[in-house]
């Protein structure tokens, strides 16, 4: 009645590349991050061992395939042929047979690439070899593997003063650091070193790499990527483009494995990128490695400026914000407020870098800023062969307003009521005077960005222009796209003091642009008629004359038409308040804090201290405390527990290296023997 099932074990195939994977690729990456953060100052010379780890190559293949196809590829879904090709690519890299920028011969091809290169005609081969082509799939895999290997090494060494092209840091972090740490500075210097991001001499890049990495194979790979010429299309001077008649373009259906293009709202927001974030380095065939290499080269400038910060720091006992080396600045809950002190002020500078743009704040006379500028120009000339002058590094006073990341740094005088507790416990209130650092979004820059995107024209009286890119879209889709754009704008201006005002202005421009679009699309002649039918937020359907016909609501109830969401933030009261949450001193990204905490807990002494604190606070019982202590002892000692009891040596003395003279250690020994 019941059949028997016989389990047949599959024979082990020694030629299967999957057998080379001993552990998960993510765990290998995690171990690299832990090792480098545990000892960030060591010279690394054994990276070839990591290049041999097939787990990293599989992980790189998954990441590049996700970028290529728009969908994540699980490890179980990778075909055996793809694994064999990936193994061939790894072996070619290890045997120094890999060539950057290949056009016809590949070790591994993209899952989307179905081209048979052996049967191509001479004309197509000539076009491939002489025109600009996207980076080969195998090149991006090698770039990803090199990034996995090099990023943890340099992230543990990079200065805390740089914020671009680094995980966990962005433009918002820069604005929060400025609001917290740049409140007391009077003179500011802005420098544009973005020409370094366009490219540097190969010798300088390799020299900067070899300060910390001495692995010949990795250095040779990056050197070959920098020196191999990139083939680009040649444009003949005087050649005129043929005028072709514009044809009707049908809607193109995407293939199954083809990623969707960026939506319109995202393209529009990318057009809002500030000047400091527009340029992304691209050096030779380095691809995603270019940003890391640029930070490696500019890290020398960061270290030089950190030395200048220590050298030029001259504290004054009469200054209430910087009178000690610990940099205690006034009230930590309101660090942007600078109380007025006597004529004798501390002299101090601070520095921040975002990509190729630097911002330096100077507290002291203008002569200090001029001296520092001269030294900075000499350093850039000697180190980067970059010719700067006084005009390229201007010195400006805070009262004129300093533009950085499309935000204006300025100062205003305030008279707050200061309350503090006297020695006898008496609360004293007195009127204070000081200055407040204000970080406001630039309205002029916002208008300039909208004009660049063809959303308005005019400066003094900006007039919205119709957004014809969305002419053939439905009203529901158009409103949804613009709502996403406004949501990103609200997040971008999150830390601006005038967040409500600037977001309300953006909403006015978008609403006026859509009203003109709908007026042209539905032949309503004016914006006033559009607002009358579609309401202030354009949430009513404009096809009906009154916007309240029962037919539309019945269709909406049956799910036969799309619901139309009104535009957000049509009134200033709907815009959220500015985020003034305090920024902690010595801030680090979440992943770095987790790494440092993990490294601390791996230390046996730190582990025992944590156990003692938990025991004192009553969070664990004495029995659990003994169990944790014994587990920590087993983990960090090669002696067996029986040998330990036979020697009658306290566990704490073995862990802490003491002689067991303290009374607490004797009590713990008795508890352990009793257990």
TrEMBL record:
Residue ranges occupied by any Domain X domain in the UniProt entry: 439-541
Ranges of biased composition (kind: Acidic residues): 660-675
Annotated coiled-coil segments of the chain: none
Gene Ontology biological-process annotations: mRNA processing
Region (Disordered): 653-675
One term under GO cellular component: mitochondrion
Name by which UniProt lists this protein: Domain X domain-containing protein
Protein species of origin: Genlisea aurea
Lineage of source species: Eukaryota, Viridiplantae, Streptophyta, Embryophyta, Tracheophyta
């Amino acid at each position: 009645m019941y059949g028997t099932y016989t389990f047949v074990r599959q024979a082990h195939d020694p030629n299967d590349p999957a057998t080379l994977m001993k552990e998960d690729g993510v765990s290998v990456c995690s171990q690299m991050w832990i090792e480098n953060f545990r000892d960030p100052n060591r010279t690394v010379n054994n990276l070839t061992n990591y290049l041999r780890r097939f787990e990293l190559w599989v992980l790189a293949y998954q990441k590049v395939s996700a970028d290529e196809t728009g969908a994540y590829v699980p490890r179980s879904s990778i075909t055996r042929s793809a694994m064999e090709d990936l193994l061939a690519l790894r072996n070619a890299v290890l045997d120094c047979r890999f060539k950057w920028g290949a056009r016809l011969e590949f070790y591994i091809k993209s899952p989307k690439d179905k081209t048979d290169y052996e049967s191509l005609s001479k004309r197509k081969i000539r076009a491939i070899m002489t025109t600009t082509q996207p980076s080969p799939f195998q090149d991006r895999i090698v770039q990803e593997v090199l990034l996995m290997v090099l990023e943890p090494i340099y992230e543990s060494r990079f200065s805390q003063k740089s914020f671009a092209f680094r995980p966990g840091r962005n433009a918002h972090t820069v604005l929060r650091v400025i609001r917290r740490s740049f409140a007391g500075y009077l003179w500011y210097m802005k420098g544009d070193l973005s020409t370094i991001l366009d490219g540097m001499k190969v010798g300088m890049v390799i020299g900067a790499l070899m300060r910390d990495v001495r692995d010949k194979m990795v250095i040779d790979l990056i050197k070959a990527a920098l020196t191999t010429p990139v083939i680009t299309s040649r444009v003949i001077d005087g050649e005129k483009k043929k005028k072709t008649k514009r044809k009707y373009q049908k809607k193109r259906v995407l293939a199954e494995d083809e990623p969707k293009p960026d939506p319109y709202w995202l393209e529009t927001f990318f057009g809002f990128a500030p000047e400091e974030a527009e340029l992304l380095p691209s050096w030779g065939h380095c691809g995603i490695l270019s940003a890391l290499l640029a930070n490696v080269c500019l890290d020398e400038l960061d270290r030089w400026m950190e030395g200048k910060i220590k050298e030029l720091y001259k504290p004054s006992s009469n200054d209430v914000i910087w009178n000690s080396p610990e940099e205690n600045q006034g009230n930590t809950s309101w660090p942007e407020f600078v109380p007025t002190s006597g004529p004798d002020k501390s002299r101090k500078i601070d520095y921040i870098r975002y990509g190729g743009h630097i911002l330096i704040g100077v507290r002291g006379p203008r002569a200090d800023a001029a001296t520092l500028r001269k030294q900075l120009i000499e350093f850039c000339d000697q180190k980067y062969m970059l010719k700067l002058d006084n005009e390229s590094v201007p010195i400006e006073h805070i009262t004129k307003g300093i533009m950085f990341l499309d935000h204006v740094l300025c100062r205003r005088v305030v008279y707050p009521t200061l309350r503090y507790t006297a020695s006898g416990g008496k609360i004293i209130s007195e009127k204070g005077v000081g200055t407040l650092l204000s970080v406001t979004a630039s309205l002029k820059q916002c208008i300039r960005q909208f004009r660049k995107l063809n959303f308005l024209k005019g400066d003094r009286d900006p007039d919205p222009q119709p957004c014809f890119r969305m002419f053939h879209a439905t009203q529901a889709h158009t409103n949804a796209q613009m709502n996403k754009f406004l949501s990103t704008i609200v997040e971008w201006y999150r830390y601006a003091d005038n967040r409500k005002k600037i977001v309300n202005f953006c909403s006015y421009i978008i609403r006026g642009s859509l009203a003109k679009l709908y007026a042209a699309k539905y032949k309503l002649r004016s914006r006033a008629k559009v607002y009358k039918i579609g309401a202030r937020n354009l949430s009513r359907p404009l096809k009906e004359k009154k916007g309240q016909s029962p037919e539309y609501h019945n269709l909406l109830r049956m799910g036969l038409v799309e619901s139309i969401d009104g535009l957000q933030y049509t009134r200033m009261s709907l815009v959220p308040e500015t985020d003034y949450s305090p920024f902690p001193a010595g801030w680090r990204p979440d992943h770095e804090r987790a790494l440092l905490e993990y490294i601390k807990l791996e230390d046996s002494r730190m582990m025992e201290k944590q156990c003692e604190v938990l025991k004192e606070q009553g969070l664990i019982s004495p029995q659990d405390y003994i169990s944790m202590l014994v587990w920590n002892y087993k983990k960090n000692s090669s002696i067996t527990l029986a040998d330990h009891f036979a020697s009658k040596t306290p566990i704490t003395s073995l862990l802490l290296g003491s002689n067991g003279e303290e009374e607490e250690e004797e009590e713990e020994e008795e508890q352990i023997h009793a257990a």
